[in-house]
Amino acid sequence: MTLGLLSLLIVVFLVMTVGAKRLARVTITERLRDLSMDVTEWRSNYKKIRENTDSSSLAKARMLARIIQYDPEILKNDARLKELADVLNVDSLCVSDGEGVLIASTEPGFLGFHMDSTEQSGAFMPAVKDKTFELVQDPQERGIDHVIVQYAGVARLDEPGIVQIAYESDNVFDYSDIELMREIMKALPIGQEGRFLVLEDGDDPVVFASGDTSENGCRLSELGFYLDPVLPDSVFIRGKPYFCQRVQIPDEPRRVLAVLPKGEVYGARNRAMAFLICIFLGSFAFFFYLLDRLIRRTVTDGFYEVNRALDKIIAGDLTQTVSVRSNPEFLTLSDGINTMVGGLKKNLTDSRRRVKRENELAKSIQQTLIPASGQVFAEFSGLDFASASVLAAHKGSDVFEPFVTDAGRPGFVMVETIGDSVSACLSMMKFRAIFQPCALAASGPLDMLNRGMEVFKDEKVFKKQFLSIFVGFLDPENRRLDYVNAGFYPPFLRRADGSFEQLRDSAGAVFTTARPVEFRQESITFGPGDVFFACSNGIFSYRDREGQLFTKKMLLNSLNGSKADSSQALIDDVMSNIRGVSGELPPDDDVIMAAIRFQS
Q1: Is residue 334 within 8 Å of residue 323, measured between CB atoms?
Q2: What is the mean pLDDT of residues 437-446?
Q3: How many angstroms separate the CA atoms of 566 and 569, rounded?
Q4: Distances in Å between the alpha carbon of 225 and those of 218, 245, 256, 352?
Q5: Is the pLDDT of residue 175 over 50?
Q6: How would residue 118 be classed by pLDDT, with cut points 50, 70 and 90?
Q7: Which superfamily does CATH assign the domain made up of 370-598 to?
Q8: How far is Cα 305 from Cα 324, in angstroms, rounded to an integer?
Q9: 403 or 188, higher pLDDT
Q10: What are the extents of the domains in the chain?
Q11: Average model confidence (pLDDT) across the chain
């Protein structure tokens, strides 16, 4: 009887499955006919719109090239470039040199990018040699950051190079067919929850347009798209099973899939099968009930008790023990868990001792890297320079190093790195040993960093590590500070009106040998009453008793509220304000500070 009922279920299931698939294909075919008609109609109109927008984009790129030809100094003025982008009504501008390297851009992070390094940007490289070259790309992923953009570019007129304009984000959709395609997909669902998916080709295709707007722009991997290896017409999207059929839209080069939830395709079949299965299962319900009672009494209850004890152990209660004695197997399991917990308690005790010793060693090393707080360069009359340092309880990776070059010029370097404990300290000691001779022989901060890059390029440890460095060279006679900021927290400067401002434009690329880095040297000429203040990010790791951090606004209030007439007094005022917030709590990261002024 059981075998006969199972055979009947299988035959009914197969017949209803074939019928459901046939009906799903008919539904998709009818909906595809409507979709093809809509796509053909608006694509004809879009072609005319695209010709006009491409012509406008090239006109703007030519205009930009002509402006640069007559005024090349505009490439050095970020503010004017941004104004020009607004005037041209574009999202960004980029200009390269004859090697295809970006030398000017309204996106500062793009400077130094090699355009031949990606397929998207490399398409403009012929403009370096061909003055007649012009190109408007289709909207696509930008090679440098994978954002959907549309670029138009021409050759520079003043010298070899490339001039580009770009439309980004929603502006790209204004000049592409993507929004129209998405609107059509949204308006033409298949059934109740079915839809068409238009895919960009690639190893991990992007959903160009979908009837579900939340899927637009997503990669198939992000949607959890999975093709069933057993059933070729079955896929999973976000864990939900779908019936899938590949279709073709006229004049559409992209791959198009039609998907219907299997709940819709096989709904009637599933309801019929559920009714039959309920009858089949009813005859076994009482048997399974008795079997469950037996298993629960002999096995399951013991597992529950073991799991409850393990949950407490995992939560950190190492005093918990397991004692299940219902059968020999559970007795052995309980003894094994108790032995494991005892060993874990011993290992945790040993680990705490080892960490404590390591922190003590890191602290002793760090104390050799940062000189004592107080006045620096006392031998230079008219120069008022003070520094301060506070070591964190569990960190040890910051450096403050004053020096006097062989030419008799005073200078200093401040360094931060990601990392803590002994490894970071040893890396900083190596950095210090290598940079000292570079500093003594350097003519300025830029020369010092470039010399260091030459030495560090063969050091493997710094190919995986990023350092934030601030290097300053002082000229007491001319009351000038020459500096290079390589990713260090931007310093502050007090001008004649007595208020401090942050030099935000001073922060350049961080120091690393993993890739080519170009540093930019800046200069400050001190006027009467001018004060320079620099600090590491560790100053913002101070917390009050409630865990609230010391903020930049608090630091500015401390600087502006200080009436100090010396660098050391200014640092003392800042520390006093910090202590008023944190009390005696130490910072979570090392803190280094420096203040400079020239006496009248």
Answers
A1: yes
A2: 87
A3: 5
A4: 11, 14, 14, 46
A5: no
A6: very high
A7: PPM-type phosphatase domain (3.60.40.10)
A8: 7
A9: 403
A10: 48-174, 370-598
A11: 82
Place of tokens 């100094």: 73
Using a pLDDT cut of 70, give the percent of the chain over it: 83
Residue located via tokens 């319900």? 285
Q: How far apart, in whole angstroms, are the C-alpha atoms of residue 465 and residue 475?
A: 32
Q: Which helix (H) or strand (E) holds 311?
A: helix 301-314
185 dihedral zone (left: phi>0; alpha: psi -120 to 50; beta): alpha
Question: Distance between CA atoms of 245 and 217, rounded to whole angstroms?
Answer: 21
- pLDDT for the residue numbered 255: 87
d(CA 136, CA 150) in angstroms, rounded, equals 8
Q: Which tops the pLDDT comparison, 154 or 188?
A: 154
For residues 538 and 592, the answer to whether their CB atoms sit within 8 Å is yes
Alpha-carbon distance values, 556 to 362, 385, 506, 561, 564 (Å): 32, 20, 18, 8, 14
Using a CB cutoff of 8 Å and minimum separation of 24, what contacts does 204-210 make?
A: 205/255, 206/141, 208/178, 208/181, 208/254, 209/178, 209/181, 209/182, 209/184, 209/185, 210/182, 210/185
The answer, yes or no, to whether residue 71 has pLDDT greater than 70, is: yes
What is the three-class DSSP state of 220? coil
CA dist., res. 370 & res. 205, Å (int): 53
pLDDT digits (tens, 9 = 90+) for 31-54: 888 778 777 777 777 777 777 888
Q: Is pLDDT of 250 > 50?
A: yes
**H or E stretch covering 385:** strand 383-390
DSSP single-letter state for residue 176: S
How many residues are present in the chain? Answer: 600
- Work out whether strand 492-494 and strand 226-227 pair parallel, antiparallel, or are unpaired: unpaired
Neighbours of 176 (CB within 10 A): 20
Q: What is the pLDDT of residues 342-385, one digit of tens each?
A: 777 677 666 666 655 555 555 555 555 555 677 888 889 889 99
Q: Map residue 524 onto helix, strand or coil.
A: strand
- Banded model confidence at residue 266, pLDDT cuts 50, 70, 90: confident
For the stretch 279-335, pLDDT in tens is 878 877 777 777 777 666 666 666 677 777 777 777 766 677 776 666 666 667 677
Q: How far apart are CA 445 and CA 448, in angstroms?
A: 5
* DSSP output for 431-494: HHHHHHHHHHH-SSHHHHHHHHHHHHTT-GGGGS--EEEEEEEEETTTTEEEEEEEBPPP-EEE
Q: Which residue has the tokens 């170009």?
A: 518
**DSSP category for residue 324:** -
Query: 307 in helix, strand or coil?
Result: helix
Candidates 556, 441, 549, 435; CA nearest to 490 is: 556
Alpha carbon distances (Å) from 408 to 185, 378, 401: 73, 14, 16
Q: Which two tokens stand for residue 196?
A: 């068409």
Q: How far apart are CA 287 and CA 155, in angstroms?
A: 83
Q: 562: helix, coil or strand?
A: coil
Domain boundaries 48-174, CATH class: alpha beta
Q: Which residue has the tokens 């959890």?
A: 224
